[in-house]
Structure formats: C-alpha cells, structure tokens
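ingest -> validate -> predict -> emit
validate: passed (alphabet ok, no gaps, 448 aa)
predict: started
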Amino acid sequence: PFPKLGSMKVKHHKSFFTVLVAMGLAARVLAADFFIHDGDRVVFLGDSITEQRLYTTYIEAYALTRHPQWQLSFRNVGWGGDTAWLRQRAHPDEGQLFAADEAVQQAMVEDAVGRGLRRDVLPLKPTAVTVDFGMNDHSYQAFREDIFRAYVRSQTEIVKVLKASGARVALLTPQPIEDKRPDPDQDVRNQSLRKFSDGLKDVAAKSGVTFGDQFAPYLAILLRERAGNPKTFIGGGDAVHPGPIGQMLMAWAILKELGASALVSKAEINSATKAVVAMEACKIQNLKVADGVVSFDRLDDALPMPIEPAAEPVLKLAPILDDLNRYELRITGLAPGNYELSIDGEPVGKATAEQLGQGWNLATQAGPITKQAQELLKLVVQKNNLYFNRWRSVQLFSFPGWAQSPEAESSRAAELARMDQKIGDSEAQIETVRKPQSHQFELKLAIQ
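emit:
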C-alpha cells in the first residue's frame, strides 16, 4: 500500500554568498526539528475526525510543499466512532473493559490494540504515526475515572506496539466540542476532554514520544470569538466534526506542536543599489532595475502551503501565515507610491513602497506559484480518497458465505493491484507537481 522508498539525491544550489550557506544550515536544523523526516511513511490513526481526511490532508500538503526533495508517503486509517482501545477494529466488551482490574484490563487492551494495529497500521510499515483519539473515548459526558483509566492504558499500549515496530509516535489531543453556547469551557464534555488531554500528555512524557495539544489553542480561539459574538460558530461542520475551517485550525495547532517551521522562502532586493541583499531558500537571477521597473527570476526551494479555498476564513482566526507559511518578498529603496506585482505576466496584487520595504507575504497570492500548490492539494485529496476506497471497500470487504472461494480472493487481489496502480500513478503526479519552478517577477508603479 505504500510505495517502496529508496535513496534520495538532494539537490544543492551553488551560491555566491557565504550567508546563504549559513541560512541553508539553519533551514536544515529547522527541518530536523520537524516530526516528519525525509523517507518517512506516515500513518494518521484516529476516529471519524481523522477519517474526514481534512486536517491530515492539510498536514500532508504542508510536508510535501515545504520539503519537495524529501521522499514521503502518507496513509490515513481513521475510523468513525473509534477509540484508543480500537473499539471499531477489535470490538472489545467495553463494560467489562471499564470494570476490569488492572491485570484483566491490561490483557484486554493488549488484545484489542494488538489486533487493531496488526490489521490496519503495522502492514503499512510506518516510520511515523500520529494518533488522534479521545472524542469518542470520553463518551460525550462528564469525566469518568473508569473510562479514563482504560484510555490511558490503551494509549500507552498503542505507543508500545508502534515503537516496537520502529515507528516514531505523536499523540494528539482532540479538539474541543463546539456547541452554540457562550461558555464552551464550562461544557462538562470539554472539561472531560481537557482531563483526557492532560492524561495523554503524561502518557507521552512517560513513553518518550511527541505530544501535540490542539485542544488548548482551539478552545482559546473559540472563547475569544464567543466573547465577541456568543452565537458564532467558527469550525463549520457540526459540534464534533469541524469543516475545512476548523480542520485547518486543527492542522495549524498540530503542525506547530510537531515542530513545523514558518519559512517557505525569502528574498530581499535593494532597488536603489540594484542588488540582491538576501536570499533564503530561494535563488534570484537576472535582476534588472530600470525606468521604475524591478524584474527578476526567482526559483524557490519550496512551494507555499496550500490553503483550501473553503478554509480561507481561518486566516482571520489564527496567525497561520505567520506561523507556517511565510513566502516573502522585500524590496527596499523604492520611490514612494503604489506598486503592482506580476508573476509570469499575471497580476497578483498591489502594495505600497512602505509595505514592500517591510516585506510582503505572498503565500496565498503568488499567482502561478499559489496555483501550483493548490493543484497539489487537489491531487493529495484524490490520492487519499483512492486509498480510503481501497482499504475500506476492497481490502476489508468480507465476502458473504456463498461467495467465499479461491476465485473471490483472486478477484480481490486483482482489484487491490489495480487500485495500488492508480494510487501509485496519483503519487507520481504529486511528485511532479510539488517541485518548484522558476518564475519571472515584475514590479512596477501601478497606473493611477
């Protein structure tokens, strides 16, 4: 189900400036801090919020665009209604699980978690797994110590099994429930989720794995927005399942917790001296400054992270561009006035000389560059839908008794092979689309 990962040659651009070497080293240090690494096979494990394939797709798109030379693969195995004890995959007796003494509960957890992971996760041979449970675990009620005990034990077992298989693990809290009330922090379900999240942090610390708290930042924004308008509903979707806006908020919080860096690339030009002052994760060539027009070719090491159009209102809720998506252009020495920027002849926006001197983040308005990132996002969505159908509709399909035969299994194998080929073709397209291209930038005074 995952493509075979081999060695990867990393392209290095020669530079005439010593400072660029230092900047490149800094970029590699930042990349080393990121939970996802070159060569990773990443699996997203969780419940229906993971199965929605939204926050996971946004995280995947970030990694693919920010590190286009890395060899990466992603699979989503979220299952609606699931819990840390893998209720939907192993079906343990939950009444017995919650009431059991330590020894019996441990045996039940080992059995359920082991069977669920062996079926849906371990065959993928993941090198990195994010685990997002808790929403169903607390059973949408006030905090219960008996359920919490099973939750902590199950999360601990998930980590144990995954680490034994060689995978790095990130334990993620769920986001808060968003009912239309002015005080979501007083909702007993959210108070329970907070306690479950705190327990998860303790599991992560004791197990030596990454912890990601999306509950606190999401709730803080929810409280801020409700203070201004008690009836506002920020996430879209429903109270439990955020739409693109809420899931982009989730992806922002998770990526920050996973050590994602802000910089895409940065270029600074002094138009008065006709010189390139700085280049970070990009290369500027053919700079020309004449008759009030500044033009140059720019080749970036990465693409901006795509923001799904349906999720764009999230940019007013959280500093996502500042925290994760800084695709910058700074031009100093310009005469006062309003300037128009075009990329490959396509007008992309206007800014004043003062704004350009401070730096312009073009992540969501870089014309053909932003469009390339959006095309990649569409391909990632397509690939993830293909894998979901392969896994749930073909791999896990149970033939009825009358159809159980060698011929049926042969048909399944053929269909799996056909779908794997389609997934592989989709990933090949992704590999092509995520590679940055050189573009011509032109800045000139806007016609009044």
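The first helix runs from residue 18 to 33.
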